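User: structure tokens for this one?
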Amino acid sequence: MEFNIYWRLAGFYFAYFAFVAAYSSYWSLYLQSLGFAAAQIGTLMAVQSVMRIFAPTIWGVVSDRIGRPDWVIKYSTLAGIVAFCAVFFWSGFIGLFCVMAIVGFFLSGPLPLVEAATLQRLGGVTSQYGKIRLWGSVGFIAIVSGVGALLDFIAISQLPVILLLLMLAMLLFAWLVPRGAALSHAGEQDSIVSILRQPKVLAFFVACFLMTFAHGPLYVFFSIYLVDHGYSKTSVGLLWSIGVFFTAIIGWFAKA
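Assistant:
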């Protein structure tokens, strides 16, 4: 893969997971600062996960229809940023629920399409995938630690500004994602229903469900729990980064 294309793709992974780090680790603290109860915080944090159930499929269909996945990556990211700006004006539960649902819908599209673009660019050399995807983990660790330290010096009310800046960085790299060739699906015979009925596919989805179910309370309430027990936000960020590091994500991707 060309050096220039490598860094354009790696940059998107870095920026995307940098945003994920700041959002998943600290957004619940921001919602708590607005006075929401635990059930409301859980609902607001869950709405984006709900969007990820069906939105990627929609964006995949759109990409196939127009034959320009790079357009979907760029403009869905842009639309997500525009929608997110509403958090600066709406702080009520219903308003934030709608905003986060819309943001979740638009931001569920870019990553799967970038994954496809990366694998397409690699051709048969999939062993190089990990070296690109590695930068997503680097971005997560860098931002979850950095934002945690920053939030010990500035008010949590400034978190939306931080998230907006990270989203703009994501948009920059979304605009740099190389255009891939349109793929033909004319030879595909199996329907989606027949694929979903395969035992190995069902087992895969059950495993994904159980993993996500187990991680739900962690992603929503871990930071709140730590802060309520006297941990600084710097410590919260370091604990999140240790979690990523010691699950061997970086090591696994570096050797893949």
